[in-house]
Write a structure and sequence with these properties.
mainly beta, three-stranded antiparallel β-sheet, 1 helix, 11% helix, 77% strand
């Protein structure tokens, strides 16, 4: 936004501003399996040529996801005022 104004005493005022915006996203994930109890044979026998085998195991599976999203906004600006030297002298003589 820009604004310029003039008055009867030759003063110039101006301002300027600029908005800024930033946005970022981040994500990660973990999928891991740990063998708490490794595979162990529970039953193992054969009836003639036919084998029978039963195993037992306990795995631990961990799944985790994380996501982040951030938005930042800012506005920067400057304001200035110009008063010529002759207008400053008149101003002082009128009030003092």
């Amino acid at each position: 936004m820009s604004d310029v104004s003039l008055s009867a005493h030759m003063r110039v005022s101006s301002s300027r501003s600029a908005p800024a915006q930033a946005e970022a996203s981040w994500s990660t994930g973990v999928d891991k399996t740990f063998p708490i109890l490794p595979s162990s044979t529970f039953i193992d026998f054969s009836i003639g040529p036919i084998p029978f085998k039963v195993t037992f195991e306990v795995p631990l599976t961990i799944q985790a996801n994380a996501m982040a999203h951030a938005i930042a906004e800012a506005e920067f600006g400057v304001t200035s005022q110009y008063v010529p030297l002759c207008a400053q002298n008149k101003s002082k003589s009128n009030f003092g």
